[in-house]
């Protein structure tokens, strides 16, 4: 046992009234859908692991390739069998360490008298590779494809518990959707950790801007990028991948303190082994049964929203969390994120919201310190069930390596060890969270405000309209931006082209800011989880292809982007009387596999409701 269940600090304060109110609203809004989900999950639980119901032919196929000892255990059906769902490939630095995890997991399971099998693999693409390329149009859709692929893996119905090997942008959300769908099974997510710190993110950003200005060439740019992304592990900035890891701890699907331990270290292997043993302890065969349906409830999602705001996490999670919650019968709205942001202080500054990377953040106290501070302010559901036990106080603990090579959990940092990176709750970086919902006659959108300077939270200027980010780059190179401008990039929504990230625009718009211009981005597309200091109203819904007001804008119309008051407005209301423009999007539908995803584009929902095909 991990000896986690009964441990408490006594630091928890009564729940903040806003969190209670938002949670109650979510529970009421989700009453019917959540009830139906729990009925389905209970029926699956009562049926039990499928091995007891399979024919001899089914069983023989299920473990034909297993070794003799594993075959004996599987045939007797007297020990749990663990299903492994892996996103391994050796092209993604974050997922390359997973190559040897199955053998580690099988060995740990056998030590417990159990078995483990790789149930299936899922695709895992890297947005860092496809940014600005045609392949990026598949990125968001890959989330739902990953969910479907994970579902196929677990549909063999021979597993008592599951572990998921995934880290990056769409992989974790897709796997969570699948885990929630198989809510009768326990599930634990196994991170692989960030790469060690290389060239600083600030230095990397400067070289990118110098390249955009023409001050350095591609050779210097590539050298800089390789110094930043230099080894196995997750990228060290606080983008979507590392925001996913934060979320898995705040929502109780990972063991405490395991997100940011570097790959290929003794402690990383020790916590992986501990997670496997825990996944086997919490099956229906034992006394500590903890199915996913018990973990992923309304409290867990509220805790996740708090964590997202308190750490200035990725805007992508405003889409993904809604889709994940839906899979568990829970209905989230952007209004919920907004309400929680209003009372959640920003306690962490990690690049692009600060100079530190995730390794520095972890050394300064990491997620345990942030969670401890939030608990002390009544800003988390302390009694939220998780894979470690029944208290979020467990997540203020952190793993250490014992002399025998196993992991133990000890008291974590009670407070920040560096207030430039993590702050205490009575001295936050900002009184409110890092995310803001904007709405008005231009539609609904979101903005990551944690790294936007206060004087840039309100931008009012004429618009320049673009239908492709490459045309924005061309306009920049032609020195066409000489006055205050709201750059509108439309027909970038889920239905139009899969809602690619427009991260490549960040250096260009940052340069315009440095020149003294007031600039903002408005788009029905996405920005990277590393959205930076340029105010960007993203995920605009309805999208242009749905005839949203963004499709009625013309060059020169004035728009107000107001993150202080949560407004996104066309200042001349007569604009709304125009017919929406149309665009030739035929070039979006072929090449780089995009022709295979026509059914996704035809059925995907609005970003405001998770941009999901389900």
UniProtKB/TrEMBL annotation:
It comes from the Bacteria. Binds 1 [4Fe-4S] cluster. The keyword Transferase does not apply. GO terms for cellular component: cytosol. It holds the Pfam family ILV_EDD_C. Keywords: 4Fe-4S, Carbohydrate metabolism, Gluconate utilization, Iron, Iron-sulfur, Lyase, Metal-binding. Its EC number is 4.2.1.12. It catalyses: 6-phospho-D-gluconate = 2-dehydro-3-deoxy-6-phospho-D-gluconate + H2O. The keyword Oxidoreductase does not apply. Pathway: Carbohydrate metabolism; Entner-Doudoroff pathway. [4Fe-4S] cluster binds at residues 168, 235. One of its GO terms (biological process) is D-gluconate metabolic process. Its cofactor is [4Fe-4S] cluster. Residues 80-392 form the Dihydroxy-acid/6-phosphogluconate dehydratase N-terminal domain. Residues 421-611 form the Dihydroxy-acid/6-phosphogluconate dehydratase C-terminal domain. Belongs to the IlvD/Edd family. Catalyzes the dehydration of 6-phospho-D-gluconate to 2-dehydro-3-deoxy-6-phospho-D-gluconate. This is Phosphogluconate dehydratase. It comes from Cohaesibacter celericrescens. The gene is edd.
């Amino acid at each position: 046992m991990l000896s986690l269940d009964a441990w408490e600090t006594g630091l928890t304060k009564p729940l903040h009234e806003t969190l209670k109110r938002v949670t109650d609203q979510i529970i009421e809004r989700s009453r019917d859908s959540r009830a139906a989900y729990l009925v389905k999950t209970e029926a699956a639980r009562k049926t039990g692991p499928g091995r007891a119901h399979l024919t001899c032919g089914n069983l023989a196929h299920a473990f034909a390739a297993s070794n003799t000892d594993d075959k004996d255990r599987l045939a007797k059906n007297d020990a749990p069998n663990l299903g492994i769902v892996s996103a391994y490939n050796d092209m993604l630095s974050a997922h390359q360490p997973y190559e040897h995890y199955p053998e580690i997991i099988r060995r740990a399971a056998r030590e417990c008298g159990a078995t483990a099998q790789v149930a299936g693999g899922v695709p895992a693409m890297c947005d860092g590779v496809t940014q600005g390329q045609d392949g990026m149009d598949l990125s968001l859709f890959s989330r739902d494809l990953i969910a479907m692929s994970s579902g196929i893996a677990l549909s063999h119905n021979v597993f008592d518990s599951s572990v998921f090997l995934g880290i990056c942008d769409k992989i974790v959300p897709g796997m969570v959707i699948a885990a929630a769908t198989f809510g009768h099974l326990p599930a634990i997510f196994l991170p692989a950790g960030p790469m060690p710190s290389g060239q600083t993110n600030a230095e990397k950003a400067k070289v990118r801007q110098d390249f955009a200005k023409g001050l350095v060439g591609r050779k210097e740019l590539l050298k800089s990028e390789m110094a930043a992304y230099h080894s196995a592990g997750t990228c060290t900035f606080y983008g979507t991948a590392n925001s996913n890891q934060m979320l898995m701890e705040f929502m109780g699907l990972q063991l405490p303190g395991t997100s940011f331990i570097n790959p290929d270290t003794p402690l990383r292997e020790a916590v992986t082994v501990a997670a496997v043993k825990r996944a086997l302890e919490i099956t229906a065969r034992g006394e500590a049964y903890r199915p996913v349906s018990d973990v992923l409830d309304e409290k867990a999602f509220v805790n996740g929203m708090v964590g997202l705001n308190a750490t200035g996490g990725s805007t992508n999670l405003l889409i993904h969390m809604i889709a994940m919650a839906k899979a568990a019968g829970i209905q989230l709205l952007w209004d919920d994120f907004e309400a929680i942001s209003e009372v959640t202080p920003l306690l962490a500054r990690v690049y692009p919201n600060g100079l530190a990377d995730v390794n520095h953040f972890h050394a300064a106290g990491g997620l345990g310190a942030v969670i401890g501070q939030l608990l002390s302010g009544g800003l988390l559901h302390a009694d939220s069930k998780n894979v470690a036990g029944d208290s979020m106080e467990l997540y203020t603990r952190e793993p250490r390596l014992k002399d025998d090579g196993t992991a133990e959990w000890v008291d974590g940092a009670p407070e920040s060890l560096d207030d430039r990176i993590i702050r205490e709750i009575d001295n936050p970086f900002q009184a409110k969270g890092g995310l803001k919902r904007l709405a008005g006659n231009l539609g609904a959108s979101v903005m990551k405000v944690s790294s936007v300077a206060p004087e840039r939270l309100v931008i009012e200027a004429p618009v320049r309209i673009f239908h492709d980010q490459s045309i924005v780059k061309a306009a920049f190179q032609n020195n066409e931006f000489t006055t205050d401008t709201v750059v509108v990039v439309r027909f970038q929504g889920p239905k139009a082209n899969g809602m690619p990230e427009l991260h490549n625009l960040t250096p260009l718009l940052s340069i315009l800011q440095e020149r003294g211009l007031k600039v903002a981005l408005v788009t029905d597309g996405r920005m990277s989880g590393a959205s930076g200091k340029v105010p960007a109203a993203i995920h605009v819904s309805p999208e242009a292809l749905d005839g949203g007001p963004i499709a009625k804008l013309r060059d020169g119309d004035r728009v107000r982007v107001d993150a202080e008051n949560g407004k996104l407005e066309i200042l001349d209301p007569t604009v709304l009387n125009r017919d929406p423009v149309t665009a030739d999007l035929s070039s979006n539908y072929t090449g780089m596999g995009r022709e295979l995803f026509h059914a996704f584009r035809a059925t995907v929902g609005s970003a405001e409701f998770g941009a999901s095909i389900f």
